[in-house]
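Write out this protein's structure.
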Amino acid sequence: MGKLSPLSIKRKSDDDNAGNKRMKSVEAEGGDHAADKVRLPLSEVVSDCEERWFLETLREAEAGDIRMQVLVSQMYNSGYGVAKDIDKGKFWASRGSRIRTSVRKLMNKRPGYNESDSDTDELAGTS
């Protein structure tokens, strides 16, 4: 599996540009005022952010960043920012695990901040 272009990546939603098209059509009609513009649902905004984060992470993973390879594996395995694809998740986990053996444990973890990532417990003991 070589480099993936953004065009070869299956997105979570087929109509990912629908919101942009709606906004452009309102602007084309002369809707310059903020009240005239269509507001996108928060779910569409979040989905767009997830997809952009995935693409940025994928670029860094392809460049050889092991941490990003692990993150791409997690994103594929959970369907975070990209359509869920266990095979691609395993591929990226195997790339990262060539150097870092703990990758297999992290493979099925959902990306992002986790309670266990915090050092709050360590700070509580020092107060």
